[in-house]
Write a structure and sequence with these properties.
Length: 933
């Protein structure tokens, strides 16, 4: 039993079993990578960041809008303005959507029909595009599911329809990355298989390498996805790809070292297990320090808070697993198969002596300063011209996606920032439905509208992005001035009427009438007196005539009596008439007296009225002058800046339109509101973060000293998220580079035991990387017209170039350390020896990244070009700079200060006493021991 166990151990079967168990567990527990990319691929922002705070505010908004997505349904007529028939068709579609709102989880629908004040924001100026905003519950499903459901539901005959939102576009970007991730993985593995087959002209060796890559990759990927799925560890949408890059390149390089040495030993007649052990003994230290360097360098990234950077820390674990697999898994098959690994090639290929690095190193030794200046002249302009031109828009690589097309339609017809607005949340400790708070909100709205980079701002007082005129003092003053003008005119008419009435009421005429009536009354009284006297006389005469008639009998008397009777009869008639007249005169006298009294009273009344009319006329004149002054003041106030302020009366606040605006822009408690800011540029613009910082400063300054001072302000939306990512990335990227490169340099110094030489080599690598980055920028701009890299490019390119630097510089450092000869004696042969594998390393690096091109992604294309150019430039400049700086490190300290006061004869004698240096064709030597040291 012990012998069997010993044999199994000798054949490394236990290691194979261990790796089989690991890979089986990794495959079984591997979650769905596409799902992880969709849900966890986006950068995880800190809880203190603006977008996260805004999400918390929105989730407690109330009004049945908690936990909802805001989705835009876009209706576009590509042929021009929407016709009445098309508008009716849109209304019909919206009506059908409203009927099935519960089925689709729609909590609110906002159109220009039910919210007329928001029409400028929902209907394009060219009248070709209409937006219908939908608030959809999170419980309805993912944004991808919601988009799929609504896309078919809003389809309208004769129109282009889209369902879009920043969340849907981001999800589409993740979906696109997930779609080509598998293709990139398969193509990279295939190219790695072919590359190893070309290097060794074998079939078995590439398969063993393929298995090593596959086992290391699946193990690391399973660990990464499980950490993200179960423990919410940082995960990037490019995690499967950068893990593949790092593991593939490192495994290819270590496998190449292993198989090359193994074949040498086997061809020399060594038994397979013994040859395998010998190779592990020879390469173990080299693989160990390379693994240690990469593990520490990338593992240190777990210390960062930014999730997209922290996700790269998993590479440290990946390199550790790869390093262990290189010295445990590959030897299992090497020991079992031996020379069969290199089937069908039976003879060892003759290795040619490649002298490229030898020639470059000789150039550096020949004239170090000239060599350094030539390198600086060739790559210096590119390295110096390095610019951090990054784009933070992940939608540039997405092909024909309806959400992206909808966003582009919005940008074309409403402005570039329409598809990705900024939301500014303001939380107050008082209700926002009164004049004081609304006045300050409107001032804030106008202040933000005036800022550069801002296209429009909507708020509770300006729901359409434009001031509502009846809410402002200027309009209200204009209406008041019009009323004052009418009142002043009416007062003038009253004044004229009063003057006319005063003129018509003539008291003198009334007084003359009274006098005439008084005279008539006195004449009537005299007439009554005379009539009474005459009546008395007639009655006396009648009595006498009656008496005379009874005593006389003569004819004369009879005649006289007859005449007297006639006279008496006439007198009786006259008396009766006079009696009647007296009665009538008495009545007339009474009426005249009453008329006189009434006229006297009326005259007094007219006098009082006339006096009152004069006073009224004076008051009207004074009032008219006062109103004229008020009119002039209000007219001036109307044209002043003060009249441009908002003033909402209680009646206006209670109106239906404004209450609808309160519902749309405030929370359930009416203590929080939001302003929607549309920027002039898309959020990938370079100045987005600067614009948002300026907007926040302006908002805080505007609220200072007002009733809303101290109210928390929180930005949300895709530009806010982009700005947060940009700020964190720009803040952390220099620290990432300093940390990883610093750790690599320190380990390189420790392994080489040389501070200066390791620093010179590493500076050469940094200059080569910077030059290749800028050269790639120029190439991409020439090829695609857009030279701005996606912000993930530096991080992705960071992986293969770091592997390149660690592998090649580690090999150079070990050659330098293990050599006992003086530096000048080592430079040429040492560099030449390392250069023998340069072409193979260069081939492996280039082949390892070519698989990225299959994705047809500008991001991965840029990574490929940066890696290839860095590998080429670095392998051309390293031998020159290493030789030149190595020689200068020896000859410069050996030079003594020039003595200007030494006599010429003594100078000549001193030069004659110096030892003569000899220079061979292959190397430069000095006989001076100090120089050699």
């Amino acid at each position: 039993m012990q012998e069997r166990i010993r044999k199994l151990h000798h054949n490394r079967i236990f290691a194979l079993v261990f790796w089989l168990i690991v890979v089986f567990a990794a495959i079984v527990t591997l979650p769905n990578v596409n799902t992880i990319i969709q849900y966890d691929g986006q950068p995880q922002l800190a809880n203190t960041s603006q977008p996260v705070k805004a999400t918390q505010i929105q989730n407690t908004w109330g009004r049945n809008l908690n936990g909802t997505y805001t989705v835009n349904a876009v209706f576009n007529n590509p042929d021009g303005a929407l016709t009445n028939k098309q508008l009716a068709a849109i209304n019909k579609t919206v009506s059908n959507l409203q009927k099935r709102s519960s089925y689709y989880g729609i909590q609110k629908i906002t159109t220009m029909t039910n919210t007329p004040t928001s029409k400028p924001q929902l209907f394009s100026k060219d009248k070709s595009t209409e937006i219908v905003q939908l608030a959809v519950s999170h419980n309805q499903g993912t944004v991808r599911q919601i988009s799929g459901q609504l896309t078919s539901q809003i389809a309208t005959i004769g129109l282009k329809t889209y369902v879009t939102s920043p969340e849907i576009v981001s999800d589409a970007a993740n979906e696109h990355i997930a779609s080509f991730t598998l293709i990139v993985i398969l193509m990279t593995l295939l190219i790695a298989l072919v590359a190893m087959g070309i290097l060794f002209a074998s079939i078995i060796a590439p398969i063993i390498t393929f298995l090593a890559i596959l086992i290391s990759y699946i193990s690391t990927l399973s660990l990464a996805t499980n950490l993200a799925y179960h423990w919410n560890f940082a995960y990037s949408e490019y995690t499967p790809i950068f893990l593949l890059l790092g593991i593939t390149l490192f495994t290819l390089l270590t496998s190449f070292w292993f198989f090359r040495d193994l074949r040498n030993h086997i061809d020399d007649g060594m038994e397979s297990q013994e040859a395998t052990s010998k190779v592990i003994q020879n390469l173990g230290y080299r693989i160990l320090i390379s693994t240690l360097s990469l593990t520490l360098a990338f593992g240190s990234l777990m210390l960062f808070d930014f999730s997209s950077i922290r996700a790269y820390g998993l590479l440290g674990i990946g390199f550790a697993i790869t390093g262990i697999a290189s010295v445990t898994l590959i030897p299992v098959f090497a020991g079992m198969l031996g020379g069969s690994l290199f089937w069908p090639k039976k003879t060892r290929p003759k290795l040619k002596d490649h002298k490229l690095w030898h020639s470059l190193a000789r150039f550096g030794l020949w004239q170090p300063w000239i060599a350094i200046l030539v390198v600086i002249y060739l790559i210096g302009p590119f390295a110096y011209g390095y610019r951090n031109q990054l784009s933070y828009d992940n939608a540039t690589d997405i092909p024909n996606n309806q959400a992206v097309q909808g966003a582009r339609v919005l940008s074309a017809h409403f402005g570039q920032g329409k598809a990705t607005p900024v939301t500014l949340y303001l939380q107050a400790n008082k209700r926002l439905d009164n004049q004081n708070q609304l006045f300050q909100l409107d001032n804030l709205t106008k202040k933000l509208q005036a800022q550069p980079g801002v296209a429009s701002v909507t708020s509770v007082t300006q729901p359409g992005g434009q001031p509502i005129t009846q809410y402002y003092a200027s309009t209200q003053l204009g209406n008041l001035n019009n009323e004052l003008t009418g009142i002043v005119g009416q007062l003038g008419t009253v004044r004229n009427d009063l003057k006319s009435d005063s003129n018509n009421l003539r008291q003198k005429t009334l007084q003359s009438e009274v006098k005439r009536l008084q005279k008539l009354a006195s004449q009537t009284n005299s007439l009554v007196t005379d009539s009474s006297s005459l009546q008395g006389a007639l009655q006396a005469a009648q009595a006498k005539s009656s008496t005379a008639t009874t005593s006389s009998s003569s004819k004369q008397i009879k005649r006289y009596i007859s005449q007297l009777l006639s006279v008496n009869s006439q007198l009786n008639a006259a008396l009766s008439t006079l009696s009647t007249l007296t009665s009538d005169i008495t009545t007339s006298n009474t009426d005249a007296t009453a008329a006189q009294s009434n006229l006297s009273n009326y005259a007094n009344t007219i006098k009082a009225v006339n006096s009152s009319l004069k006073d009224s006329r004076k008051q009207v004149t004074s009032m008219q002058k006062s109103l004229n002054k008020m009119y002039l003041y209000l007219s001036g106030l109307q044209s002043s800046e003060a009249a441009k302020s908002l003033y909402l009366s209680p009646t206006q606040i209670a109106s239906g339109d404004f209450q609808q605006s309160l519902v749309n822009f405030t929370d359930e408690k009416v203590q929080s509101t939001y302003l929607t800011i549309t920027l002039k540029h898309a959020p990938n613009a370079k100045d987005t973060a600067k614009t948002l910082t300026q907007l926040k400063q302006v908002a805080n300054a505007q609220l200072r000293g007002t009733v809303l001072e101290g109210s928390p302000l929180t930005f949300a939306g895709q530009p806010a998220t982009t700005a947060t990512i940009q700020n964190q990335f720009q803040h952390d990227l220099p620290r990432v580079l300093a940390l990883v490169f610093g750790i690599t340099l320190i380990l390189l110094i420790i392994f080489s035991r040389s501070l200066l030489q390791a620093s010179y080599w590493f500076l050469t690598f940094l200059a080569s990387t910077a030059a290749s980055y800028q050269l790639t920028h120029l190439l991409m701009k020439w090829l695609t017209g857009n030279g701005d890299f996606n912000w993930q490019v530096p991080l992705l390119a960071f992986v293969p170039v770091t592997v390149l630097a660690v592998v090649e510089l580690t090999q150079l450092a070990l050659s330098y350390r293990l050599n006992d000869a003086p530096l000048l004696d080592w430079l040429l042969p040492g560099i030449h020896e390392v250069g023998q594998t340069m072409r193979h390393s260069l081939f492996i690096i280039i082949a390892g990244v070519l698989g990225l091109l299959v994705a047809e992604s500008q991001t991965l294309t840029a990574v490929t070009l940066i890696t290839i150019l860095t590998a080429i430039i670095f392998n051309l400049t390293l031998p020159i700079m290493a030789a030149a700086f190595g020689k200068l490190a020896v000859i410069l300290p050996a030079q003594k200060p020039h003595d200007f006061h030494m006599p010429r004869r003594k100078k000549r004698q001193k030069r004659a006493d110096r030892p003569i240096k000899s220079v061979t064709s292959d190397e430069t030597k000095s006989t001076d021991d100090n120089d050699a040291k």
